[in-house]
Amino acid sequence: MPGSCSPLRFPYPLLHLHPPPSALFHSLPSPLLHFPHPPFHHFPHPPYTAPLRLNNVSVAGQTQKMNLFQSITSALDNTLSRDPTAVIFGEDVAFGGVFRCTVGLRDKYGKDRVFNTPLCEQGIVGFGIGVAVTGATAIAEIQFADYIFPAFDQIVNEAAKYRYRSGDLFNCGSLTIRAPWGCVGHGGLYHSQSPEAFFAHCPGIKVVIPRSPLQAKGLLLSCIEDKNPCIFFEPKILYRAAVEQVPVEPYYIPLSQAEVLQEGSDVTLVAWGTQVHVIREVATMAQEKLGVSCEVIDLKTILPWDTEAVCKVNRMLENHFSPHVSGSLSPLLASIGPWNLVGIIFVCVIFLCHSMVTVLSNYRWVKTFVTWLIC
Amino acid sequence: MHRTRCVRVTPVVLRGGDMSESDALPPHLVLSSPQRVLRQQQEFTSLEEKPQFPGASADFVDKLDFIQPNVISGIPIYRVMDRQGQIINPDEDPQVSARRWQDCGVEPRSHLLHPTHAGLSSGLCPTAGHTAGQDAPSSGPISPAPCTNPSPATLPAAVGAAYAFKRDNASRAVICYFGEGAASEGDAHAGFNFAATLECPILFFCRNNGYAISTPTSEQYRGDGIAARGPGYGIMSIRVDGNDVLAVYNATREARRRAIAENQPFLIEAMTYRIGHHSTSDDSSAYRSVDEVNYWDKQDHPISRLRHHMVGRGWWDEEQEKSWRKKSRKRVMEAFEQAERKLKPSPQHLFSDVYCEMPSHLQKQQEALARHLRLYGEHYPLEHFEK
Fold first, then answer.
1. Would you call the peptide bond into A29 cis, given omega within 30 degrees of 0 as the criterion?
2. Which InterPro entries does the record cross-reference, listed alphabetically (chain A) (predicted)?
3. Is A129 close to B156, i.e. CB distance below 8 A?
4. Is A121 labeled as catalytic in the residue annotation?
5. How do residues B352-373 score in pLDDT, each as one tens digit?
6. Which of A42, A45, A191, A277 is catalytic?
């Protein structure tokens, strides 16, 4: 009928999970890392992490069961107790933070060391740069990675270039910026973003994304120690969902070193943050259903990435959370493999704001992509 | 009737810090006791109609009236000398000797030095033990930190440095210079707000010279300049005649003393005029009249004012003027020639100091460039660069 509106149509077909996720969840071996409350039907796979070994030495000492935000708190606690110049600041960090990452720190260390700032990200990062230039340790919190863009100029034009433009007379290396990162299912446009690709283009800073509490504490402590300004993105979906036994004392996981989680011979799967757990599931499914042997790599440091990471096969599947167009780091990741890399496939995990479906969890999609990849 | 517990916000006056001996000013320049007003809460009954909003300490009013910004009669401009270099109010004379100017590394005879900077350097110049600014390899008492240009982006960083000095109990302040154009940047707003809320010992020094490249102040802001913004942030503010060395000296010195003693920011807006072009790429006759520039150059020039003052004191005369001009010109030309002869830095420096340690991907790029230059070096003007 002329003049009437057509009914609202959803532009993308809703993908259905197949097989049912619960079957997968219960069929896997008991892991060291588990999800105590797996409410996300798209994300049933509990990640498994081998006991942490650094430089072939087991990380010893008393451990405590911690989820991701607690491991962050532990790292910050270690830092504040050992470094009298260290300060933590950002929006709402004083009462403990919207994700509880700074609970108890203000009472323990004082209001001059853990304090709120006005609602102004460019101010938070700019202020942090100034603190770092004097040699003090500055740990700035951006409330969500989605809000990091007002600070983009400060990060790219000031922090990243401070050492270079002064010929190493000055630097803001003791600055670390932390931000909750990545989709969570109900976050909408502004509580879900994964902006690491914007910063991967910027020489002078380091960008780090952990996959679990054990990794998070070690990597965050390394970022704080590192003599370059670092951005540490924390997968918010894992704040409560991921739990591990984490050493109470400080330990350091080296930056710019990728980790091979599973060796394989047919295709290499590269990811970081939450997506590492998804591709582990994919690797298992590919092995069971297709007989494809997948190597799984956690990149951890996006910039400067690990150029020495071995890519034995000449086919790589890189996947990430961000929008498809220019979201991947594959032009950079091409340098990981041999120079005669035949094909690089980008698979974008499209997280719809109101729908929790993962492309790669869909068996049909996996089969289509991986079959084409191999053939 | 049930008595409701309410709180009322009343002002409580705190005394500021004491002056240190080494910073003692002449008694006539010591201002009445510095005070800062904080809000304190006390109980009262809900029967009283008093505002209880946490966001502001104010009374109710029952007549609709908008506040009219006053830009016709704005914040007054503090000055010590008139245009002929005579001290107007002897009580404001800082009684600075010629020797003191020199001790602070200021050449009062230099035709190239702007009095704002001269006054600043002297006002900040420490007596024993105090320094202003950040650590830097510097022979003088004032340590500059790197800046891109007086860039507004470094404003919040200055506040961060001041906070770190406060935590360090170092009795140090930071001074940050910027123009009235830079004050429009969001970073300036961020810097002001952070300095006030975090109580940082910082001096915000705005040089309002009437133009940001070609943009006049009428297109930069509509309020009463930059000084009027300070109170909006809770910042102590003053407007000074930027062409008056002694006024700048007095204001800066007192602001620095109080910033350290009271841990609060100060905003100084120095009014002046940009006689020269913005840069060597600019021809300002495209956007302003030559007559306007000539007025400031001939009749209201800051260096001339200082010169008249020094002549009046017997510190300067025509002969010294002639000989100093000759010496200055020679020094500048020599420096020019020396700089022109210098080679440009080696292309290898493109990759160093990007990070503290050079990562492998930059090493590879550096090696690739070296290989490229070995093969195709004749296509590049390598003779102008160091090896």
1. no
2. THDP-binding, Transketo_C/PFOR_II, Transketolase-like_Pyr-bd, Transketolase_C
3. yes
4. yes
5. 999 999 999 999 999 999 999 9
6. A191
